[in-house]
Structures are given as C-alpha cells and as structure tokens.
C-alpha cells in the first residue's frame, strides 16, 4: 500500500475531533510505512468554521461538510466526519487503532496516546555546534529559564544561564529564581497561608483550644519568608552547578542571532556566542499611569516591606490584586480594592462575583468603577489618592494593574524581532521568527502567565532541541487557582465562554452551595458560602467543559481534574466517581441540581 497522508482537522474542545485525532495519531504510530498523519487543531468552534471553507476548496467531495472534525486523505480526497473516519481506519487498516469512548485517549491495546501536533524545530542551516562558546544561552533564570537550562544540560548540551534582577523603582531586589520564587507564587502562597492561619485561630476556641488571637507581626513574617526564599535562591545555584550549567549573574541583550552581550553589576561588558538562544525574561509590574503613580509600590515590593503596610489601597482587580488584598485583610489591615471594571477578567463572572462577595464578608472594601487620577504625599508621609468620585488617605498604595514583558532593553531590534503593546514576543511552539532564537514563559504573546506553564515550555523546548522530541506542550485544560480569602480553583471553560461558544441551549450547569464540614462547628463561619459548578455540553454525552470551585483548598481539589477534562470526562463519569467522605472534593461528585431547574442549590446534611 503506498504511504498516504491522513489529515484530521477540528475544534480542539470537540470530543469527536479528539477521538478522530487520537485514531489518526495511532495510525501513524502503528503503520509508519503506510501513514503520515496531520492533525490540524483549531482553538475554537469559531476558528474551525472560519478555517473550513478554504480547506474544502481543495477537496473532492464534502462541499456540505460543516461539523467538527473533518478528515481527508492526501490533501484531496474527502473522508468525512468522525464516524466516517473511524470506518475508514477500520476498513483500510484492519481495526488496529480503533479509538476509545469519549476520546479519553486509551487505545484498544490499553496504552494511552494523545493528540500529536508536530512542533519539530526548524533547522538553523547557518549554525553548527562547536563554532560557538555554548550550545545554548538562556537569558532569564526564572521558572522557564531554569527548567530549560537544567534539562538541556542533562541532555548533554553546553549551557549558560544569565539571570540579573534590576531593582524595582522602590529599590527592592532579590536573588536567582525569577518572579515565582522571589516576588510571586511562593511568597504570595506563604502570605496567604499566614492569613488563613489567623482564621484557623478564630476557629480554635470552638474546637476546644484555649487560644487568643493576638496581633499579626508583619516584620516576623517578612523575615521568615525572606529567609526561606534565600534558601531557595541558594538551592538553585547548587542545582545549576551540579547539572553543569554555567550561571552568570549578568544582564543579557542580543547583539545578533548568535551573540549575547553581558553586563555585570559593576558595568563590565562581555560577549558570548551560542548556537541557540532562549529568551525567558518574564515580566515586571506595569507602573501606575497617573500623576504621582510612582508613589505606589508593586508586588515586587510587597513581600519585602520592612514595616507593616497599614491602611492599603490595592489598584486592580485580577489575580495579583485580589490575592494581595485578601492576605492584607486577613492580617487585619484596612484594605480597599479599586476596581476599574470587573473582577477577574477572563474568569467565570458568576464565580468572580462570588470571590468578591466572600472577600467583602471577610472585611475587604471595594471601590467600584474607579481609577486613580492622582496620588500625592501628605505632610505626615501618607498618600492621598484622588479618583473621580472621591479621595482618601492611605499608608500604602499597591499597583496591581497587570504586567509588561521585560523585553525593552533586550536588543530585539538587532535581530529584527518585534514585540506587541505589552512587550511580548511572538513565538510558535517557542520558536521566534529568527531560527536560532526561542522564547518561553511570560514574555511570549498569548501564553498563560503561570509557573508550571513556563516550566513545561522550558523542558519541552530543551528536549525538542537536544533529543529530537517533536510534540509541543499540550496547553489544553490547564487548571488554575486564585488564592483569595476563599480560594477559587477552575479548569476548562467558564459558563460565560461555554454559552458564547455553543449557545445557551447547548449548555447545562450543575451546581451547589455547600458548607465544608470543618466550618460547621466554629460560630464565626457563615453557612453555604462555598459554591461549585460544572459546565457541560448537553449533546455531547454531557461532556464536561468547565469545573469551578470556591472553597478552602480549591486549588488542591481542582488540580487533578485538568487531566479528566483533557480526556473528555462526561458528567456521568463524574457522578460515578466514588468520593472521599467527608471532603470538599466529594462535593464535585455529588452534584445533581441543574441550574436550568431554577431551584436553590443548597446542600444540607451529609
Ligand atoms: P520569570 O519567573 O519572571 O523569570 C524571568 C527572569 O529573567 C527574572 O529573574 C529576571 O530578573 C530575569 N531577566 C529579565 N531580563 C533579563 C536580562 N536581560 N538578562 C538577565 N536576566 C534577565 N503563577 C502560578 O502558577 N501560580 C501562582 O500562584 C502565581 N502567583 C503569582 C503571584 C504574583 C504576585 C505574580 C507577579 C506572579 C504569579 N504567578 C503565579 C506567575 C508566575 O510567577 C510567572 O508565570 C512565572 O514566574 C513566569 O516564569 P518566567 O520564567 O517566564 O519568568
Ligand atoms: P492582569 O493583567 O490579569 O489584570 C490586571 C488588572 O488591573 C485588571 O483587573 C485590570 O482591570 C486592572 N487594570 C489595568 N490597568 C488599570 C488601570 N490603569 N487602572 C485601574 N485598573 C487597571 O494582571 P495581574 O497582575 O493580576 O496578573 C498577571 C498574571 O500573573 C496573571 O494573568 C496570572 O497569569 C499571573 N498570576 C497568577 C497567579 C496564580 O496563579 N494564582 C497569581 C498572580 C498572578 P480591567 O479588567 O478593567 O482591565
């Protein structure tokens, strides 16, 4: 049989596409001499519909095809949709690659396969290993850069990693490890936990403990967290040394496609050359763009303040703003959040509102529909903030109004690379338009700004560079959590996005309010504040499109559902999962109440 090219294209959230794509991928694995597989992933139903007419032009047959997926052979012969393609696979290849129910990716031989899109690296024809000081130079030693450098070095490459921290405008500086370790996830989660510890102390008397909640000691927390971070900074240096990565505490910029200028803290300049360069410079907080904006600190300073912030205004209403406002409230500071439009843009808006309500109940104030117009120092060293409808005096103003990629001084113009309005670089599967230059993590356009994403991009790219791995990072169904007073964890589509994408009639939502068992005894806890909902696509076996949870430890609970959504979990699968009693996680398997019933979804009893 001559080798055929089999193409399957579809909307990535469609389970029929996933099933057909899995089978197509298996065909190439099982019959490499007979089949070359092309999987074309369109990120939404809308994108698929826009792509389809052009594809149909080149095919014989299929003029009326509208659904996802579409399958064809040798870029010319139309096969059909999912069922037609499975039939084609069975008849042409004897059934060896029949796909599973719901596209879970478990083939009939029991081994798991996933949708494989090719991300083979382009060959940089001009460059040969050995002509350069290093096989790989990485600019930026944060989550992504560290992961890439360690992986590449383990795979035998000669690697140098540059990491240099330019102090914040308020003079805060830190060590190796990037945003997550020094001024992001790690201190944030520890401060969040410190605030929760205060709540547990309020629970304690009702559980029989003779405890009195005293004042919070900010200096002690900062000191202890700082010491832990220093141990992490040191640990990274040791790891790099052990893995044979050359660590250079220097600021890097590009001179050409293979040459990096380095500047150390004394201003001494040098150049190093590399066959390949990865840009992993992350981002920095966007300054507050109003008169006196420089008086505001940012998250780069928050975790290192030598004295307690006191009465604080947090400007912004997304992850950073709500998380910081929550722990400040938890420590007992008078905290207000200034919201320009909505809370948590891009998240499920019902959940976002519930996050806000829970924060308000815990004592955070909200100034809605406002932006600061002017900040000025008062005679007693505080800050007066003016907005259209009012003004107030604060001890601290925290600007949490988004981040800009740290690319402005990277010399991108020397290699012809451009950035977008927030400094981000365009890269496809981490490959920029310059063959020898790559970009990963927060500095990449359209990339989720999350540590595990940056780490996975770094490891994946190193493997594609040095052991010929071909598949890109699978960015579907990435779970995330907002560590506000009451945590919000989610994975998949928001209800709003699902309704927009598929239409109101196609969507059902199962939901409930509930009270975690540990909240039933302490008198200060309110009942039925926690909430969960699961968004399903009715006509696709009630496939789960999104899961949302507002509760203590929501991040811990929602984490594992990332894999369930990736492999097409249905609502029935979730209902059939036997929970662990009595846990918060169990609530997700006990849902029965459809939102469309209009009934109150409030749980009582076990
Ligand atoms: P970074 O970690 O930012 O690292 C870039 C490094 O490059 C920095 O060390 C920088 O100093 C260095 N650098 C920059 N330019 C140069 C240069 N020219 N030469 C040399 N070095 C240079 N994500 C989560 O997943 N969970 C969370 O809970 C979470 N919480 C967060 C809380 C806050 C307050 C913030 C701000 C972010 C949080 N994030 C969280 C996001 C997460 O920190 C980032 O997505 C992640 O750090 C990105 O990694 P990166 O490698 O792309 O960049
Ligand atoms: P975002 O870009 O997510 O949000 C910026 C916020 O600032 C929005 O609420 C926006 O309002 C508001 N804003 C922007 N400009 C102004 C202005 N001029 N005046 C008033 N408000 C303004 O930024 P974040 O810094 O919160 O987060 C950055 C990224 O870091 C996140 O996307 C996330 O990936 C990562 N992160 C992850 C965390 C986690 O995993 N738990 C925690 C913290 C950060 P509007 O909606 O009106 O535009």
What labels describe this entry?
FAD/NAD(P)-binding domain; binds NADPH dihydro-nicotinamide-adenine-dinucleotide phosphate; 606 residues; 4 domains; 25 strands; Glutaredoxin
Number of domains: 4
Architecture of the largest domain in CATH?
3-Layer(bba) Sandwich
Radius of gyration: 26 Å
Low-confidence stretches: 95-113
Instruction: Determine the mean pLDDT.
Output: 92
Relevant CATH superfamily of the largest domain: FAD/NAD(P)-binding domain
User: Beta-strand percentage?
Assistant: 15-25%
Number of helices: 16
Instruction: Give the end-to-end Cα distance, rounded to a whole number of Å.
Output: 61 Å
What features would you describe in this structure?
With 606 residues, this protein is of the alpha/beta class. The chain folds into four domains: 4-93, Glutaredoxin (3-Layer(aba) Sandwich), CATH 3.40.30.10; 129-284 and 404-466, 3-Layer(bba) Sandwich (FAD/NAD(P)-binding domain); 293-403, FAD/NAD(P)-binding domain; 480-597, FAD/NAD-linked reductase, C-terminal dimerisation domain (Enolase-like, domain 1, 2-Layer Sandwich). Helices cover 30% and strands 22% of the residues. It is built from 16 helices and 25 strands. The strands form six sheets. Strands 5, 6, 7, 8, 9, 10 and 20 form a seven-stranded mixed sheet that branches. A five-stranded antiparallel sheet has the order 21-22-25-24-23. The longest helix has 26 residues, at 218-243. The protein is globular and about 85 Å long. Residues 95-113 have low confidence and may be disordered. NADPH dihydro-nicotinamide-adenine-dinucleotide phosphate (NDP) binds at residues 289, 315-321, 323, 340-342, 345, 371, 400-403, 448-450, 480-483.
């Amino acid at each position: 049989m001559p080798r055929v090219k089999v193409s399957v294209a579809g909307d990535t959230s469609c389970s029929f596409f996933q099933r057909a794509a899995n089978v197509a991928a298996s065909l190439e694995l099982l019959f490499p001499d007979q089949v070359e597989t092309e999987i074309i992933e369109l990120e939404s139903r809308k994108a698929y519909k826009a792509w389809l007419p052009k594809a149909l032009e080149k095919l014989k047959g299929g003029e009326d095809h509208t659904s996802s997926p579409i399958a064809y052979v040798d870029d010319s012969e139309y096969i059909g949709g999912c069922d037609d393609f499975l039939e084609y696979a069975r008849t042409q290849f004897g059934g060896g690659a029949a796909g599973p129910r719901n596209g879970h990716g478990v083939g009939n031989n029991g081994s798991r396969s996933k949708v494989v899109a090719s991300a083979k690296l382009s060959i940089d024809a001009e460059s040969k290993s050995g002509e350069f000081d290093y096989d790989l130079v990485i600019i930026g030693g944060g989550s992504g850069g560290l992961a890439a450098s360690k992986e590449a070095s383990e795979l035998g490459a000669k690697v140098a990693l540059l990491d240099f921290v330019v102090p914040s405008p308020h003079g805060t500086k830190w060590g190796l490890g990037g945003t997550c370790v020094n001024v992001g996830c790690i201190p944030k989660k520890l401060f969040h936990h410190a605030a929760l510890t205060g709540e547990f102390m309020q629970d304690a008397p009702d559980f029989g403990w003779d405890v009195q909640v005293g004042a919070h000691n900010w200096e002690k927390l900062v000191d202890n967290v700082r010491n832990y971070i220093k141990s992490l900074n040191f640990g990274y240096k040791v790891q790099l040394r052990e893995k044979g990565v050359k660590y250079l505490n220097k600021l890097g910029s590009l001179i050409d496609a293979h040459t990096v200028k380095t500047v150390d803290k004394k201003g001494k300049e040098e150049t190093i050359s590399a066959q390949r360069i990865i840009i992993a410079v992350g981002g920095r907080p966007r300054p507050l763009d109003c008169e006196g904006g420089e008086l505001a600190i940012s998250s780069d300073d928050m975790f290192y303040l030598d004295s307690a912030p006191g009465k604080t205004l947090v400007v912004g209403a997304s992850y950073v703003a709500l998380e910081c406002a929550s722990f400040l409230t938890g420590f007992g500071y008078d905290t207000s959040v200034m919201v320009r439009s909505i809370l948590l843009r891009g998240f499920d808006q019902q959940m976002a509102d519930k996050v806000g309500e829970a924060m308000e109940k815990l004592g955070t104030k909200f100034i809605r529909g406002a932006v600061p117009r002017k900040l000025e120092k008062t005679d007693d060293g505080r800050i007066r903030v003016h907005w259209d409808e009012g003004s107030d005096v604060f001890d601290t103003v925290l600007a949490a109004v988004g981040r800009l990629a740290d690319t402005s001084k990277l010399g991108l113009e020397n290699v012809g690379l451009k950035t977008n309005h927030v400094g981000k670089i365009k890269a496809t599967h981490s490959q920029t338009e310059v063959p020898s230059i790559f970009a990963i993590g927060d500095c990449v356009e359209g990339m989720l700004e999350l540590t595990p994403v940056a780490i996975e991009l770094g490891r994946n790219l190193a493997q594609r560079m040095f052991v010929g791995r071909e598949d890109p990072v699978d960015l579907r169904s990435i779970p995330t959590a907002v560590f506000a007073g009451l945590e919000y964890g989610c994975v998949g589509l928001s209800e709003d996005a699902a309704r927009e994408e598929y239409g109101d009639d196609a969507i059902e939502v199962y939901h409930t309010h509930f009270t975690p068992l540990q909240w039933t005894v302490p008198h200060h806890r309110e009942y039925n504040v926690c909430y969960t909902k699961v968004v399903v696509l009715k006509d696709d076996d009630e496939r789960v499109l999104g899961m949302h949870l507002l509760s203590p430890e929501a991040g811990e609970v929602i984490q594992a559902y990332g894999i369930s959504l990736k492999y097409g979990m249905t609502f029935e699968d979730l209902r059939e999962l036997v929970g662990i009693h009595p846990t918060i996680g169990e609530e997700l398997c006990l849902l029965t109440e459809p939102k469309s019933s209009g009934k109150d979804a409030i749980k009582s009893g076990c």
